């Protein structure tokens, strides 16, 4: 009888913990938890095999065993190619409701199709970081994403508070530790709000796009004929012109009602083709792009935004230029910059060119006057200046110069003599 | 007799060039230096053991030739310590540049990087980890060149203040200090020199002016007391014949136990590459070359758990 009870207890408890996760089944942390496992590789990159164990367990991938990503590692010393990571691989973490193996496959698919699609999504090792370290090239997954904390530090207090309810409010229906272990964290994490603030996601874009010297090297692909051309001035300064717009300035003040880069360029969903994993950024000329002329009404009219723009009578609204060059300061006065026809979209440049020519005319006039007429007091440098002095300033009219007077009288005298 | 005197003065002049102030001390104490002697040297008074050995031995021609070759084949590595692409997993911040700029450390760091082990993919990370709290000479001192090995102790030495640590309690745990390292001592005196030593300054000046042949000579000379292969793990991580007195280094009983029964060490001991048995095993099984390669050099990591 006792054995039976024990047996029942054991089977019951094993069912209860059936879905509990084991983080390190392969014993990787036996070595990798040690600190200071470093070396400098042939390329001169500092390689660090030490992983902060406590951080890993509380990270986004904390319940993913190392070998789910570093799949081929079986031997020590590990061969470089065996450690390669493919972000589209599925791992042993099951999606809790339907039990499907988790994978980033869909996101990778969307990303690979996008403008950034030439960036890597697989083959990641510590050694090939140097090859990817060029910000004028398309970003790879790891350019923007790292294994950050499962609950962001700024959300921790909120999470703790919500977690208290799992036993009381949630626990009324969902009883048992199995449920709590498996689902409560997963649900609560969504309950406490988005992990990304809009300003955080902008920071990722700006990491490359705000670096003008890198952006000057970028070549863009025309989706209509697949030809490549260097990025124009407007594109290079997109980050700067956005920063001046109201969309951005609202966010800077900590108000999440502004629009981030991806709110317009990769919204949740705007066409039937794009499911909306927020990686579908396309050239505005591409029909798939959320910023394509045809799709702008839909994009601007996202919920809680400018809904009226969906109405065809408000079509003019989408003509608003959000990356207007008028927003940019005139900062580059080099000759190349001044004669660059791409900048003529900016009214500041147009005005500068017109006023510049007029100013040049006057400056040249001043210089000519100074060189050729400085010893000739009879001529004032500015046309109409005598009249201005007489009438406006009330100065007495200049008498005719002595020399001139003399010359006239002499001439008269000579004339009379001659007579 | 005059000839012997003359040769002695010639030699002491070369020593003077090399060691500068220490050579002056040598002259005062009137120590007879044995050239081409087969006897093992004892420490010269007032000189650290390391310098004594340098004084005692003359580098062999082979060693100089080898040094010359390695100098010629040397490739300078450009450090990429500021990649804009961050590593995916979180690590502790590395301070390699600061460490390189720091003047505190063993004499070796004058030329070698703070993470000196690079080539052997099997041991480099573990060795570099040890270099955080063990001075290079602790493993790389060639004991065959020391007369009285039994007088060699291993104690903590503070490279920042250049003093031995008298009270090592707690140091065994807080081993991340990086300027306090286990260092060989000979006859109660530190056996190695630091980067602040006068000898190092003289040597640096010489090195800057030197051509390849002279550089090779200097290199061979300063590496004389050393061996390129360090100690095996079991030399320190074992119960028998342990060269370290772990308790006197400030370890508790528990730490001693953990130190001697380390799973990684037993893993390395079991699967030593140099172990002839492994090679025999593979030849017996007549594996293909590729497989042979794997079985010799690569070990299943799950073995670690057994």
Notes on the structure:
The complex is a heterodimer of chains A (about 425) and B (about 300). By secondary structure, chain A is mainly α. Among the domains of chain A are: about 195-330, no CATH class; about 330-365, no CATH class; about 380-419. Helices cover about 40% and strands about 5% of the residues of chain A. Chain A contains 19 helices and 9 strands. Chain A has helices at about 1-15, 30, 55, 65-70, 105-115, 140-145, 155-165, 175-190, 200-210, 210-215, 235, 240-245, 245-250, 260-265, 295-300, 335-340, 345-375, 385-390, 400-419, and strands spanning about 40, 45-50, 75, 85, 90-95, 100-105, 120-125, 220, 230. In chain A, the strands form 4 sheets. A two-stranded antiparallel ribbon of chain A has the order 1-2. A two-stranded antiparallel sheet of chain A has the order 4-7. With about 300 residues, chain B is α+β, with helices and mostly antiparallel strands. Chain B is about 40% helix and about 5% strand. Chain B contains 13 helices and 5 strands. Chain B has helices at about 1-20, 20-30, 50-55, 60-70, 95-100, 125-130, 135-140, 200-210, 210-220, 255-260, 265-270, 275-285, 290-295, and strands spanning about 150-160, 165, 180-185, 190, 300. A 4-stranded antiparallel β-sheet of chain B has the order 2-1-3-4. In chain B, helix 1 (about 1-20) packs antiparallel against helix 2 (about 20-30) and helix 4 crosses helix 9 (about 210-220). The termini of chain B are far apart. The relative contact order of chain B is 0.12. The model of chain B is unreliable at about 5-35 and about 275-295 (pLDDT under 50). Strand 3 (about 75) of chain A pairs antiparallel with strand 5 of chain B.
Task: Give short descriptive properties of this protein.
heterodimer, A: about 425 residues, mainly alpha, 19 helices, 9 strands, B: alpha+beta, 4-stranded antiparallel beta sheet, 13 helices, about 40% helix
Instruction: Give me the oligomer status.
Output: heterodimer
**Coarse structural class of chain A:** mainly alpha
**Uncertain residue ranges of chain B:** 6-36, 275-297
Distance between the termini of chain B: 70 Å
Topology pattern of chain A, helix = H, strand = E? HHEEHHEEEEHEHHHHHEEHHHHHHHHH
Strand order of the largest sheet of chain A: 1-2
- Cα-atom radius of gyration of chain B: 22 Å
Which stretches of chain A are poorly predicted, pLDDT < 50 over at least 5 residues?
Answer: 6-19
Mean pLDDT of chain A: 84
């Amino acid at each position: 009888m006792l054995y039976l009870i024990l047996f029942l207890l054991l089977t019951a408890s094993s069912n209860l913990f059936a879905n509990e996760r084991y983080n390190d089944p392969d014993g990787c942390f036996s070595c990798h938890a040690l600190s200071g496992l470093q070396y400098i590789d042939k390329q001169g990159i500092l390689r660090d095999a030490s992983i902060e164990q406590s951080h890993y367990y509380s990270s986004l991938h904390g319940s993913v065993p190392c070998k789910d990503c570093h799949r081929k590692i079986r031997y020590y010393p590990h061969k470089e190619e065996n450690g390669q990571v493919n972000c589209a691989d599925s791992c042993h973490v099951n999606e809790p409701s339907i039990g499907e193996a988790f994978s980033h496959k869909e996101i990778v698919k969307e990303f690979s199709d996008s403008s950034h699609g030439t960036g890597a999504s697989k083959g990641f090792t510590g050694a090939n970081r140097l090859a990817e370290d060029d910000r004028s090239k398309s970003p790879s997954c790891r350019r923007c994403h790292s294994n950050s904390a499962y609950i962001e530090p700024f959300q921790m207090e909120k999470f703790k508070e919500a977690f208290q309810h799992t036993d009381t409010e949630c626990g009324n229906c969902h009883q048992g530790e199995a449920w709590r272990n498996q689902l409560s964290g997963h649900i609560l994490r969504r309950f406490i709000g988005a992990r990304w603030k809009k300003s955080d996601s902008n920071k990722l874009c700006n990491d490359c796009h705000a670096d003008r010297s890198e952006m000057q090297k970028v070549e863009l692909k025309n989706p209509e004929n697949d030809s490549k051309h260097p990025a124009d001035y407007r594109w290079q300064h997109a980050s700067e012109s956005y920063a001046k717009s109201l969309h951005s300035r609202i966010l800077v003040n900590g108000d999440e009602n502004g629009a981030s880069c991806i709110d317009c360029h990769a919204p949740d969903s705007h066409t039937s083709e794009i499911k909306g994993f927020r990686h579908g950024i396309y050239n505005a000329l591409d029909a798939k792009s959320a910023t394509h002329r045809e799709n702008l009404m839909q994009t601007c009219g996202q919920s809680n935004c400018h809904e009226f723009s969906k109405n065809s009578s408000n079509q003019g609204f989408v003509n608003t230029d959000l990356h207007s060059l008028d927003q940019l300061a005139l900062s580059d006065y080099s000759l190349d910059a001044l004669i660059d026809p791409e900048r003529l979209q900016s009214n500041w440049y147009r005005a500068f060119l017109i006023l510049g020519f007029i100013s040049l005319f006057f400056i040249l006039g001043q210089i000519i006057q100074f060189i050729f007429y400085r010893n000739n007091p009879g001529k004032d440098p500015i046309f109409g200046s005598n009249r201005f002095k007489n009438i406006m300033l009330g100065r007495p009219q200049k008498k005719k110069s002595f020399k001139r007077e003399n010359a006239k009288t002499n001439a008269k005298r000579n004339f009379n003599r001659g007579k | 007799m005059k000839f012997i005197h003359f040769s002695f003065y010639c030699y002491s002049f070369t020593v003077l060039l090399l060691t500068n102030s220490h050579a002056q001390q040598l002259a005062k104490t009137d120590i007879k230096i044995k050239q081409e002697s087969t006897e093992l040297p004892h420490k010269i008074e007032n000189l650290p053991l390391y310098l004594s050995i340098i004084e005692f031995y003359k580098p062999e021609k082979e060693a100089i030739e080898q040094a010359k070759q390695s100098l010629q084949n040397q490739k300078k590595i450009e450090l990429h310590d500021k990649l804009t692409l961050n590593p995916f997993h979180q690590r502790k911040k590395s301070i390699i540049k600061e460490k390189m700029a720091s003047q505190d450390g063993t004499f070796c760091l004058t030329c070698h990087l703070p993470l000196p082990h690079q080539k052997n993919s099997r041991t480099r990370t573990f060795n570099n980890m040890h270099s955080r709290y063990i001075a290079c000479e602790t493993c790389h001192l060639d004991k065959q060149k020391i007369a009285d090995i039994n007088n060699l102790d291993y104690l903590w030495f503070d490279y920042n203040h250049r003093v031995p640590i008298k009270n090592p309690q707690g140091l065994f745990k807080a081993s991340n200090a990086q300027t306090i390292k286990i260092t060989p001592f000979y006859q109660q005196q530190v056996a190695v020199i630091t980067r602040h030593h006068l000898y190092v300054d003289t040597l640096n000046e010489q090195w800057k002016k030197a051509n390849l042949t002279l550089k090779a000579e200097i290199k061979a000379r300063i590496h004389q007391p050393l061996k390129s292969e360090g100690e095996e793990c079991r030399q320190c991580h074992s119960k028998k014949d342990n060269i370290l007195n772990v308790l006197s280094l400030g370890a508790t009983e528990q730490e001693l136990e953990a130190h001697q029964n380390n799973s990684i060490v037993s893993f390395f001991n079991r699967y030593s590459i140099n172990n002839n048995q492994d090679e025999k095993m593979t030849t017996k099984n007549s594996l293909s070359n590729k497989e042979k390669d794997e079985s010799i050099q690569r070990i299943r990591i799950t073995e670690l758990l057994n």
